[in-house]
Amino acid sequence: MTATAQWQRTEAGYTGVQPDAEWAREVRELAAQRDAVLLAHNYQLPEIQDIADHTGDSLALSRIAADSTASTIVFCGVHFMAETAKILSPGKTVLIPDERAGCSLADSITAEQLREWRGRHPDAVVVSYVNTTAEVKAETDICCTSSNAVEVVRSVPADREVLFCPDQFLGAHVRRMTGRSNMHVWAGECHVHAGINGAELAERAAAEPDAELFVHPECGCATSALYLAGTGAVDDERVKILSTGGMLEAARTSGADSVLVATEVGMLHQLRRAAPDIDFRAVNDRASCRYMKMITPAALLRCLREGADEVRVAERTAQRARASVERMVRIGNPGGGE
Ligand code: SF4
């Protein structure tokens, strides 16, 4: 046992372990013993991002997981993301450091609710954002990301109804972009987006007229900003709607002194690393996802020591969910430059 051995399980997550050099050494050693690749979503704590083999958005990480030769995937992100990795890599062991790391957006629709909704629109095509459970994906015709949602909906014949879930802001954005009147949108949302509300975004942009504005809509937390940018509430020229890869690239090439970032605050870590001379600031410091932050140093250590928590998806569900994810991958640019 080492100095970092003890952790406590609390409601907010596992605590009691410092991310020091000894922790880092043990994490890397255990990962090697388990033949595991460590993946960290952009919204993870900085120390988790720094120890990971790869960081990125959920889809990019799922693809890395599928291509990896490692037999075990440790997914430092929220549960639906680890499930997506399992759906795309059914033969691999997928671990999440704390299975309680959920997602308020994914929780806003259940498979039963979707079946009931579909029952009322039997000829409709169901399009679901990737922030959904495996069971909801299994009831879906085509999944989408924020990068290809418009193209996915455009791919549906004009005379077919579309049921879009679960994100109401992304849905409203897609409806406006496609001009589609036969599209029904589920009233779901991510709790973090409330920290990036329209009024605040417009106010911050007005107060800092020289700052560029980066909006990263992946993950639901900034889809309200995406919607607002589309209404013209903020000057178009200053707003850049970017994927993770696009945002890091824009950071490296931007001539701006300061950039306001409308997304979950975890993304700031990657941006500051990519362009240390730019003053990156969150539109709202409270835009932090408590589920993402449940993947603590203690949780990661426990995961690697105990081989827990393992993510399992029933074979039939995984098969049907995989079909809707694969249709998504074939349309437009789902990874948005990742
Ligand atoms: S930021 Fe929002 S959409 Fe993303 S994991 Fe957290 S609750 Fe879910």
Automatic annotation (TrEMBL):
Pfam families: NadA. It comes from the Bacteria. GO terms for cellular component: cytosol. InterPro entries: NadA (IPR003473), NadA_sf (IPR036094). GO terms for biological process: 'de novo' NAD+ biosynthetic process from L-aspartate. Its EC number is 2.5.1.72. Coiled coil: none annotated. Its cofactor is [4Fe-4S] cluster. Keywords: 4Fe-4S, Cytoplasm, Iron, Iron-sulfur, Metal-binding, Pyridine nucleotide biosynthesis, Transferase. One of its GO terms (molecular function) is quinolinate synthetase A activity. The keyword Iron applies. Pathway: Cofactor biosynthesis; NAD(+) biosynthesis; quinolinate from iminoaspartate: step 1/1. PANTHER family: QUINOLINATE SYNTHASE, CHLOROPLASTIC (PTHR30573:SF0), QUINOLINATE SYNTHETASE A (PTHR30573). NCBIfam families: nadA, PRK09375.1-2, PRK09375.1-4. This is Quinolinate synthase. It comes from Saccharopolyspora montiporae.
